[in-house]
Amino acid sequence: MKQLRIHEHFATLADPRVERTKRHALMDIVVVAILAVIAGADGWDDIEQFADARLRWLKTFLGMRGGAPCADTFRRVFAALDAEQFQHCVLGWMRELANGLSGKLVAIDGKTVRGSFGDGRGPLHLVSAWVAENTLALAQLAVEDKSNEIVAIPRLLELLDLRGATVTIDAMGCQKAIAAAIVGRGADYVLSLKDNHPTLHAEVAELFEHAEKTGWRDTAHSTNMTTDGGHGRVEVRRVWASDDIEWLDAMGAWKGLRSVVMVERERTVGENTSVERAYYLTSCAADAAKLGDIVRRHWSIENSLHWTLDVTFDEDSCRIRSKNGVQNFATLRKVALALLKREPSKAKLSVAQKRKRAGYLTEYLLQVLHGASAAE
Predict the structure, then answer these.
(1) Model confidence at 347, in pLDDT bands (50, 70, 90)?
(2) Long-range CB pairs of 334-337, under 8 A, 24+ apart, other chains included
(3) What's the predicted TM-score (pTM) here?
């Protein structure tokens, strides 16, 4: 059987247990947990059942000298395992799967694990970096609540080699320091501008309103329109981008600021039509077609990551209470999701269907793991 490269990525992971308590090898525990989550496990008890049911098969490529670990063993080990170090090992693995970020879109957004409250604290909030082209979560950091995303995002950026990438963030991350950090990492940014910067938001909105009233005669710009729909819905997206921004009061305060963008979404469902506008700051050139595509693809982090974690992996129902345990299990889910999405032989299957198939067939489960290894 082909050697699993997974061992290489976790070779530096420190074992939190004292030597006399080690009945099971740390690598066995980590690999079994990853395989189990791929195959449908949503908690420590599920992982125990997987290990017990697949023990003979697991022994063909893992030591498993202590037999199948019990649920309490998985619970204690992952509660004690340093979450940042575990994430760092996973980051090395995901970085190889991504095969570089140059020319790619890295979307950053946060999600609360709603069932994870405990130990006198509220639910854990995780900020993730999502590579749209590879459909994988590259890294995550935990914060106590959504308001602390502003502090976490620069730390997350420091973990990533962003040279040549474009980073997209919603309004929470539209901050001068974050823009400077992105440019400092050799990347471009597209930041959603809302009322958390009321003066600048009003100025950008006024720029586009004035340009519209004057027929764009005095404002350099590009524009693009797309239409799509289905199931009784039609959406028209109009994008305008302008680099005619020297007059903005905040021009010098935003490092690398090159253009501003307005996206208008006109949505018709049946006989009802709604129109909304959104504004963005960017260090990119004023290419409306490219920027409209970037803005739209940012939401793949919501649709392909957060939604899938909630619906397919039932993340919000998870009742793990220890902080490290919550973070580490969230990391396991994201590893499983990345590997399932990359498995090419059953491309027509949904992630949920692939997960079921991996639970039924050990051959396919290894294919999910080896498919990623082969791509590396």
Answers:
(1) confident
(2) 334/90, 334/128, 334/136, 334/137, 334/140, 334/305, 334/309, 335/34, 335/37, 335/90, 335/93, 335/94, 336/34, 336/37, 336/38, 337/136, 337/137, 337/305, 337/308, 337/309, 337/312, 337/313
(3) 0.91
